[in-house]
Amino acid sequence: MSFIECAVRDSLPVWNSCLETPFIQGLARGDLPHAAFRRYMIQDSIYLKHYARAYGKAIYHARTLREIQVYYDMLNFVTDRESAVRLSYLRCYGLTDGDVERMTPEPAARRYIRFLSEVAERGDGGEILTALLPCMLSYSYIFRVVAKDEGAKASRYWDFIEDYADAQYALRCGQWSAFAEERCCPRDAREMARQLSAFRKASLLEWGFFRMAGPREADSKA
User: Fold this and answer.
1) DSSP string, 13-50
2) I need a labelling partner for 90 at 20 to 30 A (CA). Which of 4, 46, 58, 126 fits?
């Protein structure tokens, strides 16, 4: 079993727990309150800015031109596609990028941001990459599972679900995973443990993020 396959297998129970969160369930059924989805979009937009900064650190510590090119490709996906999608949703809620810049991350988002910042500051390229990958790989897994349910196609959030369930996105995740297999390549048990720990910690933080984004009592009044 490859290193990335091992990391994914270790975190798969966490990703399956993400599927059971009220946020993901509400997306799939289409009954997630707009206030909850709005909150998710705001918090995820705040998070993505810091996520992109971690890629900047990965580029800085890259050892080859090819590494820089792959990190740049991944960063472009975050800034050009994911951020653009979120901004389009935010505009629907009457918010701009400037509005989001002035907002504060909630505890779950703040914990995730702090984790990425700490890993990036240590400057270990393999650890940085294993901390970054679960965000992309888990979304591909989670939303492909959600999209298999025919009922999800009737959800008012189907366009968002479909975006991450897309076969092209899964293909790119596969390409990034193949790159990670080459780049991480733990030299010893200690390095492998550190990288696996980063991958699992990021997966757990994703779960915490989805839990934070779930509906609240006040959402029905919003």
Assistant:
1) HHHHHHHTSHHHHHHHHT---HHHHHHHHHHHHHHHHH
2) 58
